[in-house]
Amino acid sequence: MTTHHLITDLGDIGFGVDIGGSGIKGAPVDLVAGTFRSERTRIPTPQPSTPAAVSDVVAKVVSSFGIEAGERPVGVTFPAVILHGVAKTAANVDKSWIDTDVDTLLTARLGRSVHVVNDADAAGYAEVRYGAAKGAGGVVIVVTLGTGIGSALFVDGTLVPNTELGHLEIGGRDAESRAADSARDTEKLSWEEWAKRLQKYFRTVENLFWPDLFIVGGGVSKKSERFLPLLTLRTPIVPASLRNDAGIIGAAMLAAELG
Ligand code: BGC
Fold it and tell me: Which of 79, 152, 208, 243 could anchor a disulfide with 142, C-beta 3.0 to 4.6 Å?
């Protein structure tokens, strides 16, 4: 963990933290450029990933930014359905998060205003504002492939939150259990084998939503040339351009906009 210099002129700086299954990452964000303002901090996610243990790590990440409490709100991503600041699901985190008011918990722990948002929604928002879908109209679906599958749906740039398309039931199975990047990893699938599952997944989604564009995010999107060319879809599909930074950037932007 690095401690950054004290940032005194907030100007267009926002703050984002991404709570993931393996790491909790954060950085000050330049809200005009949509880039990190300084190096990001990453601390492994505590196991079990209970609300108390995770809050402590989020506090450490935020304190590494070198900013005073009580300033601009911090945007935080969380891998679950978030309704008005409350986690309603917990597919890949400790079940004790269900019905936890994450906004209130982290606001109290950090002593500053916090806005929590679903991780894929945050990443998608950054891609629509600064990344691969910048300026794109129509229906855009951002799919993040990681431990689970996250989704973010945009209609003319407006987010429809909590779509949870990773949990579509396909062939009697929860889609993310078959097609997430973690399935490729644990089942040691070749790119071709994994692409067959992705083909089925994206085909199902496009038949239901008829989007104008798919964007694929998550860490594996940096190897998109290994699997995107293997897909045959009617919808254009491109890798996310902000990669794994998108969640932090999107969360910071959403928090700054909410004030
Ligand atoms: C969760 C989503 C999350 C996605 C990616 C899914 O299991 O239900 O809320 O966006 O994983 O982390």
Answer: 152
